[in-house]
Amino acid sequence: MRLVAAAVLSLAALAGAARRPSANLKRQVSQLRDKYDFVIVGGGTSGLTVADRLTAAFPAKTLLVVEYGDIHYAPGVFDPPTDWITANPDSPPAWSFTSLPCPDMGNQTAFVQAGQVVGGSSAVNGMFFDRGSRFDYDAWAEVGGPEFANSSTTWNWDTLFPYFKKSVTFTPPSPDIAQRYNYTWNLSAYGGDTPIYASFSSFQWADQPVLAKTWTEMGLEHAQECAGGDKQGICWVPASQDPVTARRSYSRLGHYTDVQPRANYDLLVNHQAVRVVYPNGLASGPPLVEVRTLADGSLFNVTVRGEVVLSAGALHTPTVLQRSGIGPSAFLTSAGIRPLLDLPGVGSNLQDHSGPPVTWNYSKPYDFFPLPSEMASNATFKADATAAFNATPARGPYTLAGGNSAIYVSLPRMDPDGYTTIVSDIRAMVANGSAASFLPADLRGDRAMAAGYDAQLLAIANLLANPAAPSLETPWATTEVPYATAWSFLLHPLSRGTVRLNLSDPLAQPVLDYRAGSNPVDMAVHLAQVRFLRGLLGTPTMRALGAVEVGPGAAVAASDALLADYVRQQITLSFMHPCCTAAMLPRDRGGVVGPDLRVHGAAGLRIVDMSVMPMLPGTHLSATAYAVAEKAADIIIQAWRRQ
After folding, report:
1. 539 annotated binding-site participant
2. Does the active-site annotation cover 620?
3. CATH ID of 103-113+208-245+352-371+404-570, from 3.30.560.10, 3.40.50.300, 3.50.50.60, 3.40.630.30
4. pTM
5. CA–CA separation, 410 vs 492, rounded Å?
6. Which of 65, 243, 374, 556 could form a disulfide with 370 if both were Cys (CB 3.0 to 4.6 A apart)?
7. CA dist list (Å): 602 to 283, 308, 324, 610
8. Is 316 among the residues known to form the active site?
9. Domain coordinates of the chain in residue numbers?
10. With a cut of 70, which residues of the chain have pLDDT below it?
């Protein structure tokens, strides 16, 4: 009965939230207060999480969130009326970026999207709600060196895990669904009661077990739970969806709509935070926040009593800083901006997951029902699926989101003979001083950036040498659409890119230079991963189905040069996980923020979003964004309580 009631409430909220403005929703400057204790720039995944926690902890302190987008309904990645392939026509606005060509990847460009809406990328992402392995987050402490290791605030798996648990409410599937699909989980990895939900689908495509059996035949084992720090083998991964309605669970609902009304919490939409301003110098913070009204372009300042938190994301937080005169001084001068604070790490250190596919066809008939093609070819099936999704509880294909299955494999497991050469090559480039030559040209001579990059490469070498640390991800839900595919996600890239202001229009979207493949070791790992995935075609299950390889093919895979050309031609350069452009590192390692997330040298200014990660973890980023924000909120709350 409780679940049914919850479903009715959830559906009512979803139907009406976009058209029922909160009393705290602001659309023009005349509605704002004279001053705020806290201002958060960006109403996305992290920003709304911090806003929720601060307004709850300090009901007498006022808080303003400044958001470029507006409130929209955000359907799941696979909700009616879409099929498995086409985008949902009701999806909210999203920023779309095309990077500069990557010379080392055949001049391919990366296509990246980010949410342009209250809720940020949690409103538009693929809803795959996994976490990295413990080794990913322990690497953050490693690259911070002794300065960070001796800090009173530490960032590693042990200190972040409680916030992963706090940030989400996990609901196990019903016994019959769990038995039908052999779902496994461990409740000790969860335990929160935040209205950000994670759950498994009540449906899987009929051929989902094909790859599960294939991976087993390749020697991989099923893991009971992959969210508790140990992440190897074949994993079930929950989706960020309501356990009853199966609709998208995201930060606008869980950290804004569900916590209103709060008299101290204002949200200003359709406004761009242009920059932060220090009228009396960097030591005189907090700064003012200069805001632009999108309707007419007018500018005004928001006065802040306590502090400013930048949560505009890995692609926009650097631009706010750069417009403020905080960033690489040479670049700022070239942009006509007077440098206020020389931090070369601002907009540097850009990382993302990338990878090519292994593809095949089946030459023998197979009888699986249903498959995704039914959504496009069978009107009755699609109508039944829509009715099932709108039932209480939701059921059927539309509850699947993007899928719940993935494998995670370490480099030693994939390439037991060759991984030591890869690891040695990384360590050698640090030892002989050549590593900095793979940085962007304007950063190669910067000692701090070189030192930070060296530290990252050594940490990546340790990850790649660790048989318990995955370096490959392959998610799947079916082998049918658009054709049989196993994707090769490079989880720990060595190449580093940049996010820079558009010199012709600093208020426009930034210029992304991914520089994928600029460190040649990335290609060596790509080759090892593709060769490993090709092994699936020789398994008994695939032979029984008459699997015939399409790409790369045996002749191509036999040659390093030909296989590298295949990677360059077929690679997807962004799986929409950009990060690390305002890294949490010491200043003498190119860092932008310290462990307390305060910007080095700028009073009253912190950053809380995926730009602060020093290294990209081997995971989709949504769950990490929530956990980082939860920990950051605690850091801020404790600091103000001490005052």
Report:
1. no
2. yes
3. 3.30.560.10
4. 0.96
5. 11
6. 374
7. 6, 11, 11, 20
8. no
9. 103-113+208-245+352-371+404-570
10. 1-23
